[in-house]
Amino acid sequence: MFCRVATHIVGAFVLAAVVSGPAPAAHAATIFSDNFNEDSTGAKTSTTNFTVTNLNGSIDVIANGDFGLPCVDGNCIDLDGATNVAAVFASKSITLSPGSYTLTFDLSGSQRGDTNKVNVSFAGIQLDSITSASYDPYKLIIETFSLAATTTGSITFDETVSPTAGDNKGQLLDDVILQSTDVLEPGSLALLGSGIMGLAFFHRRRARFPAANG
């Protein structure tokens, strides 16, 4: 249903541009972001904006170049920490209104000889399951989702599902960003559609009944 509405909105934007000039564009607003650069390095069960929620699980905050491991910029997260129990790494609680959202993050393989898997979710809604070979470079991952009702929950990266979980060699995570995308509300869309239909009716009527001369 959301995709159908989005398609109709795009069509309305195009028609509006024809009859009344440029239409307002949808734009993204950042709700949450973390590049982990404010966190001190080492084995941890929490950072500034995230917490490890599973028993005995941990992550390692790594500075770029530590142990020969790369980060995108500054610090990054090894999702299978020094306790040898991979992490369920969950952000602080976030409340989202109904709408469309995009979650982006950088993810690489462990760079240490194993293959790992992580499940990505928001508020218990699984968005993706990503497997990285050991030497996979950082990739920008883009997840899009929509909510029909106000929802409170966490962005979660669950490395415990990895077949190699617990070996202290997890995928590397960096630059987590959650954004909302504004679109026309249904009332605004209906009003715009009515205006366009009115203009079309007016032009058809003029074509059928030309004004008298003189």
Share of helical residues: 10-25%
Structural class: alpha+beta
How far do the termini sit from each other? Answer: 53 Å
Given the C-alpha coordinates, what overall shape results?
globular
Structure description:
With 214 residues, the protein is α+β, with helices and mostly antiparallel strands. The chain has one domain: Jelly Rolls, CATH 2.60.120.200. It is 20% helix and 37% strand. The protein has helices at 2-20, 186-208, and strands at 28-34, 42-44, 50-52, 59-63, 75-78, 88-91, 94-96, 99-108, 116-122, 125-132, 139-147, 151-153, 155-158, 172-181. Strands 1, 2, 4, 5, 8, 11 and 14 form a seven-stranded antiparallel β-sheet that branches. Helix 1 (2-20) packs across helix 2. The longest helix has 23 residues, at 186-208. The radius of gyration is 24 Å and the shape is globular. The N and C termini lie far apart (53 Å). The model is unreliable at 1-25, 188-193 and 199-214 (pLDDT under 50).
How would you summarize the topology of this molecule?
Blueprint: H1 2-20, E1 28-34, E2 42-44, E3 50-52, E4 59-63, E5 75-78, E6 88-91, E7 94-96, E8 99-108, E9 116-122, E10 125-132, E11 139-147, E12 151-153, E13 155-158, E14 172-181, H2 186-208
Antiparallel strand pairs: 1-14, 2-4, 3-6, 4-5, 5-14, 6-13, 7-12, 8-11, 8-14, 9-10, 9-13
Helix pairs in contact: 1-2
